[in-house]
Design brief:
The chain has helices spanning 2-9, 11-33, 38-65, 74-91, 101-133, 137-169, 171-187, 195-203, 217-225, 228-258, 263-291, 293-308, 317-353, 358-370, 372-386, 397-407, 409-422, 429-439, and strands at 67-68, 71-72. By secondary structure, the chain is mainly alpha-helical. The chain has one domain (9-190, 227-437): MFS general substrate transporter like domains (Growth Hormone, Chain: A, Up-down Bundle).
């Protein structure tokens, strides 16, 4: 059991390593480091991100319906690992100078599009495998703890290491290192799939009936998009993720120009946040079952928002580091709660439809949360343009204010909206317990 859990959960490293490195640094790299046009790169990033999010629910539905020699999902992961790593590397090695605006922007757009396509194909299938591989509540809780541990390792690497590596040996070596790591960690998930058993299962056409999806696309979307539990969950997730996305993506501007921090200091700030979050994952894993996912989510969002307020007054690296450590308290809970909440929603849906539809729920989740990236790109582009940002070591007072707003008041406002939406979430602790009793008797 332990080998299977560790094998599957190691995929969390790839999921967070690449997505956080790309989402946090790619615009900063193309605009600030490579001196690209904020308008052109921002526009390209927005279109690319919109494409990636729109294709996600289709991939989720495809994941539920398409079966290969190993059954559902695993072929997408096995054959998608190498292209994913290679396309990530390509994003960071533009062959054209930024002075050739059209070619420079087109290269970014095409390679980012390819990377996002392979990322979504592999990750939606890997995510949807979780409920298939771990059936009981005990097994899921145990696997989820390991998944979050590996996930935080990926978060630490994806957020803190790119700037640190780039400061010492460059962005291109960073991309090569991350690309190879992503391929390796995806391959380590293969033993958990039990390919021989899955092949026999597929050949005999004997997959469990609760894994068979018969709903059409229209009905699958209808039962998903009109699900109150899912709607309130996904509304909260969008605004919380947007707050985290804009914080991490625009922190580079704030630390570089407002605080005059080095790339290494910025990496240490992010590293401190995640180092605090790592042990607290186990604390929250004990708290959440006691008070329920609903109350835990509300507490986590409030803690996240309160930790952002002091950045309005930060003047030094030490005080910024202390604020970063405080962010880790709420962040650790949010990392755990996403899987817990979506699993509760999927359980409720099975009781209503009689089918397990992990793929479509993860696909729609990816679609909605994916809009955070183009939303962040739009907001960042507007703030940079309106505040008078320029390629210079010295920025105007208005630009410095813009950098500060992008990591404080804007994400805090998003958290407040997400909190209001989530207040209408119907799956309180007692409801969840009843659903689990119906599905998983005896409850583990």
């Amino acid at each position: 059991m332990l080998k299977k859990v560790i094998s599957y959960s190691s995929g969390s490293i790839t999921a967070n390593l690449l997505s956080l490195a790309f989402g946090t640094y790619v615009q900063f790299y193309y605009i600030d480091t490579m001196k690209g046009s904020p308008l052109w790169i921002g526009l390209a990033a927005t279109i690319q991100a919109l494409y990636a999010t729109l294709v996600y629910p289709f991939l989720g539905y495809l994941s539920d319906r398409v079966s290969f020699c190993w059954g559902r999902r695993v072929a997408f992961i096995i054959y998608g690992a190498v292209p994913l790593g290679l396309t990530f590397i390509l994003v960071w090695i533009p062959p054209f100078p930024s002075t050739k605006v059209v070619l420079f922007t087109a290269y970014f757009f095409i390679t980012a599009l390819l990377y996002d396509t392979f990322y979504n194909i592999t990750m939606v299938n890997w995510s949807a495998l979780f409920p298939e591989l771990f059936h009981t509540s005990t097994a899921r809780a145990y696997a989820s703890a390991w998944k979050q541990m590996f996930g935080i390792i990926g978060l630490i690497a994806g957020l803190a290491l790119p700037q640190m590596i780039a400061s010492n040996i460059g962005w291109r070596p960073m991309a090569i290192i991350f690309g190879i790591l992503s391929i390796a960690t995806l391959f380590t998930t293969i033993p958990s799939f039990d390919l021989r058993h899955r092949r026999e299962q597929a050949l005999n056409q004997s997959e469990a009936s609760d894994h068979t999806v018969t709903l059409s696309v229209r009905h699958a979307l209808k039962y998903t998009l009109f699900n109150r539990s899912f709607l309130t969950f996904i509304g909260m997730r969008f605004f919380v993720q947007f707050a985290f996305t804009i914080l991490t993506a625009d922190l580079s501007y704030y630390t570089k120009y407002n605080l005059s921090l080095s790339g290494t200091q910025q990496s240490l700030l992010l590293l401190g946040t995640l180092v605090v979050a790592l042990p607290l994952v186990y604390v929250w894993s004990a708290v959440i079952p006691r008070i329920g996912a609903f109350r835990s989510t509300i507490i986590a969002i409030i803690l996240f928002g309160l930790a952002l307020l002091p950045f309005l007054f930060v003047k030094s690296f030490i005080t910024a580091l202390l604020c970063g450590l405080a962010i880790g308290i709420g962040l650790s809970a949010i990392l755990i709660l996403t899987d817990v909440l979506i699993s509760d929603v999927i359980d409720e849906d099975q009781l209503n439809t009689g089918e397990r539809r992990e793929g479509i729920f993860y696909g729609i989740h990816g679609l909605i949360v994916g809009f955070c990236t183009p939303a962040q790109a739009i907001v960042t582009t507007i703030v940079l343009t309106a505040s008078g940002y320029k390629h210079s070591p010295h920025q105007s007072t208005l630009a410095l204010l813009g950098f500060k707003l992008m990591i404080t008041l804007i994400p805090i406002l998003a958290l407040i909206i997400g909190l209001i939406i989530f207040m209408f979430y119907p799956l309180k602790k007692e409801h969840v317990i009843q659903n689990q009793k119906k599905l998983y008797q005896p409850v583990s």
